[in-house]
Amino acid sequence: MHTATPKDLRAAGVQATDKPSLQIDDFSNGWQDWYLLSAGSPHHWEYSTRKINDPKWRGRDDYRLAFEVQAEKPTELVILLTENFFRSYRGKQRQFSAIVKLDGGEEAQTVTLTPDDFVSDSGEQLSSWANVDLLSFRAYHDSGEKLLGSKSWSGSQPQFRQLRWTEPEDRP
Questions:
Q1: pLDDT one-digit tens code per residue, 117-127
Q2: Quick check: is 15 in a domain?
Q3: Which of these, 26, 59, 65, 80, is most buried using a 10 Å CB contact count?
Q4: Do the domain assignments include residue 1?
Q5: What is the number of structural domains in the chain?
Q6: What are the pLDDT digits (tens) for 52-88?
Q7: What is the share, in percent, of the chain residues with pLDDT greater than 90?
């Protein structure tokens, strides 16, 4: 095994070439950077990614999280954010959720969310994107204390496009 320390890389003149991106996923490669749980289930599906933990795709606190989604029928989509997922050294793992009402139909709708749109089971609002490690789209979330969304998803699974951060000047 060969090892190159940061000092070795600096001495060799290595320069980072990758840059941060507002575009998190355009879904042109399907769910390539996601993990899917019960993807074939009409009601219990969950799509999750840790991409927003990577400095390339990490949102600044003044950004909004935006995506396009098309659902066959009117329903609710649950977006779950998890802080400190596999990172207990930063603090306690916490989950925050947002519920989005989907209109249904053939047209995609754009959803735009701020940290304040995400709330924990205890009612605490997410204050920052900084410690969010995991983003999940779900038909429902059952915390044991309350059910968010529905265990009877209406219609086929939603189609997602253009998951991204929007900067303040891009806000509607």
A1: 999 988 999 99
A2: no
A3: 65
A4: no
A5: 1
A6: 999 999 999 899 999 999 999 999 999 999 998 877 7
A7: 67
